[in-house]
Design a protein that fits this description.
There is one protein chain. The protein is an alpha/beta fold. It has a single domain, classed as HUPs (Rossmann fold, 3-Layer(aba) Sandwich), CATH 3.40.50. Helices cover 45% and strands 19% of the residues. The chain has six helices and five strands, in the order βαβαβαβαβαα. The chain has a three-stranded parallel beta sheet. The chain is globular.
């Protein structure tokens, strides 16, 4: 299997995302991380900031590259010539929405398959939204996100004071 696509908002990237991407990178020749420019929820970080944080966090993985997209994921996958999406699942609650998206994507692009990687239990509770909430109220996010994200969250809070 040539390359897999790992899409998401990555607002910001967490250690849970890094874990899924690292594991996908073991099984595929290449992994392209696809960052959506305009996520449905108003992002805390710009596309450039989210991409820079991902680049730093994934710099040790030679077969991983980062791309960004607007619009439909299936169009981006087609442009890249990739026919496999890999996503992480933390719980059954993730599965319901992920299954729906996978099936819609397959309907839009029958050549596109989706595979799921189960979250490492250590990160099963972790989400970008919770990380932002904890950081917003001054809680510690050390060990939950890459170092660059930790400083970026700290900086945002300092600037808002
Ligand atoms: O990190 P997220 O927010 O769970 O990522 C969701 C994402 C970006 C993968 C998903 O919203 C997406 O693929 N959006 C692009 C729009 C699209 O293709 N929608 C139809 C799929 S059902």
């Amino acid at each position: 299997m040539a390359r897999a696509l790992c899409p998401g908002s990555f607002d910001p990237v967490t250690n849970g995302h890094v874990d899924v991407i690292e594991r996908a990178a073991r099984y595929f020749e290449g992994v392209v991380v696809a960052v959506i420019r305009n996520p449905s929820k108003n992002p805390m970080f710009t596309l450039e900031e989210r991409t820079a944080m991902l680049s730093e966090a994934l710099s040790g993985l030679e077969n991983v590259e980062i791309s960004s997209f607007d619009g439909l994921l299936v169009d981006h996958a087609r442009q890249l010539g990739i026919s496999l999406v890999v996503k992480g699942l933390r719980a059954v609650s993730d599965f319901e929405y992920e299954l729906q998206m996978a099936q819609m994507n397959a309907r839009l692009a029958p050549e596109l398959d989706t595979m799921f990687v189960t979250a490492t239990p250590e990160w099963a509770f972790l989400s970008s939204s919770l990380v932002k909430e904890v950081a917003r109220y001054g809680g510690r996010v050390e060990g939950l996100v890459p170092k660059g994200v930790e400083s970026a969250l700290g900086q945002i809070l300092v600037n808002r004071r």
